[in-house]
Amino acid sequence: MKNTSSVLMIALVVAILLVSFSSNIGKAKADGNYSVEHISHTISILYTGHVLINDTITINETGQAGPSSFLMGFPSKYGQYVLKCFAYSESGTFPVTLNVPLGNRLGFYGVSVDFAETNGAPRVFNLVFVLSSSLLQQDASNSSLYLLDFPAYPSLTEDVGVCNASIVVPKDATYVGGTVGGFTYGQANLPAFTHSPANLAFVSTDDTIQIVDIVNLRRELTINEFGAISGVDTYQITNMADKKISYLEVFLPSNTSDVHAEDQFGRSMGEPLQIDSNLSRYMVNFTSSVEKGRSSRFTVKYQLPNDHLTRENMNKFALNLSMFLHENYYIDDASVAFILPEGAVVANLGNGADNSNYEISRSVFQETITVEGQGIIAPSDFHVGFTYEYNPLWSSFRPTLWVWALAIVGCIIATAFWRKPKGEVHISLPAAEMKLKPEHLKSFVDTYEEKKKILSEIASLEAKVEKGKIPRRRYKVLRKTMEARLSTLSRSLTEFKERTGATGGKYLDLMRQLEVAETEIAEVETNVKSIEARHKRGELSLESHRKLLGDYQHRKENAESTINGILLRLREEIG
């Protein structure tokens, strides 16, 4: 009897504990749990080959409010390619934390969306990733064949009711094969922690993909005294494709006119061809093709009407302009500078934008407003608004200065002529400069061009040995031969520099510019090796690594442009 009572008591205690535990579980679910009802997983290939993943998430809330945070990601192999991530809904944007653990699972790259400021997640919101163009490969022998590496499905910590996926490719694209059945696919009851790397091969002959990195875009908009605006867009690009590129499509502000382009040396590249007037899209043809892995700069100049300016009163003007609304590409670094008319003064900044993004620089008579941004993708929130005060009387300031300057110069010339003694005046050039012969200049330029060619061959040789295309023993032999020839050329160039610099005048100045540019290139190459090593050790993030590389590449290209300009000038001297 005693044993029976003990058993009944134990059973009663266990039953009470089970009821209490079940009620607590039910309460937790009712207060804050949710389920993911539907995800629309869209993978778009941008014009520059970057991969845009837009996940539209619909949740089914079981409590009073949605979750205060949301975890999502994809297989960890794609983490190194993430350039940008942001979340938004109809009510605004939400903070996103990158590279967080996805639950307690390994092998995933996770991001966390914070909804604390909105007291819970909205029912529908979007999470967008921009991935590097390195995930899109173009066949070297068949430039119309592409292979895309991408996550077929998102990875969540909860099951998903339905996930519909689509891949946005050029209109003429044809599906060839891959781990997914086509450009559209889907799955019901998508399990939590889905790990789904995928690939897709397709053919496109429409030339609507140009695998390049737009390292930076510098836009200068100069406002004159009448409110007309002239624009100058300077692009720095790097060819990431396995082929040469000879053109690039660019987007300009709406209602542009008088569009023309110039290369990095200021030579005309002709009038860009307008492809889409609604989107203000133009095709710029290069004077020379850009090879794989090489960078180039070009400039597009245009005119804008004064429609973007609003006159608030007699001396006060307002400008509101939204940038980068239609660009079908990713821009690493962008800046827009507004050069105001002489005498204009900034009255107010940030009409609809954050004042911290603005920077004002001042010269004697002029002010310039600069706005910068990183990771630009359309439709961006790069909106610029400001007001400035300008007195129309300033329009006569410059002509008045010229009149006074001409008057003063005229007086000086008249005085000098009045006091000038009679007789001939002889002007002589330095003897050394007169002795410099055209063949000396030609020999110097030819030798320097050969040196540049050998340096390029050495760089190509290093790339081949890293990829295992040539044996290391053969690499050492070829490099030793090239370095021997390079040493001979360097000695000859040193002698030429001494002879050319000894002439004085402009040649001495050119040699000094050449040495400065060479020193700059050597420093850049040393710094690039340093940041590559730091990146491999994990001391630099992908974003910092890319930004530093872009800065150093920009410095190197400036130095190379200086050298090419000097050689071009010397060739012109040869005649």
What is the helical fraction, as a range of percent?
25-40%
Round the Cα radius of gyration to an integer and report it. Answer: 32 Å
Task: Briefly note the CATH topology name of the largest domain.
Answer: Immunoglobulin-like
Question: If strands are numbered along the chain, what order do they take across the biggest sheet?
Answer: 5-4-8-2-1-12-14
Mean pLDDT rating: 82
Q: How many extended strands?
A: 29
- Count of helical regions: 7
What would you say this structure looks like, in words?
Residues 10-32 and 422-434 have low confidence and may be disordered. It contains seven helices and 29 strands. The longest helix is centred in the last third of the chain and has 33 residues, at 542-574. It has three domains: 32-203, Immunoglobulin-like, CATH 2.60.40.3650; 212-394, Sandwich (Immunoglobulin-like), CATH 2.60.40.1730; 431-574, no CATH class. Helix 4 (438-466) packs antiparallel against helix 5 (472-501), helix 4 runs antiparallel to helix 7 (542-574) and helix 6 packs antiparallel against helix 7. The chain is of the alpha+beta class and 575 residues long. Strand 20 and strand 21 (281-290) form a beta hairpin.
What's a concise summary of this model?
This protein is α+β, with helices and mostly antiparallel strands. It contains seven helices and 29 strands.
Search tags:
575 residues, 7-stranded mixed beta sheet, alpha+beta, Immunoglobulin-like
Write the topology of this structure.
Blueprint: H1 2-32, E1 34-45, E2 51-61, E3 69-75, E4 82-89, E5 92-94, E6 96-102, E7 105-114, E8 124-131, E9 136-138, E10 145-151, E11 155-156, E12 160-168, E13 174-178, E14 184-190, E15 197-203, E16 212-223, E17 229-239, E18 245-251, E19 257-263, E20 273-276, E21 281-290, E22 295-304, E23 309-313, E24 316-322, E25 330-339, E26 345-349, E27 358-362, E28 367-377, E29 383-389, H2 397-419, H3 431-435, H4 438-466, H5 472-501, H6 505-536, H7 542-574
Helix pairs in contact: 4-5, 4-7, 6-7
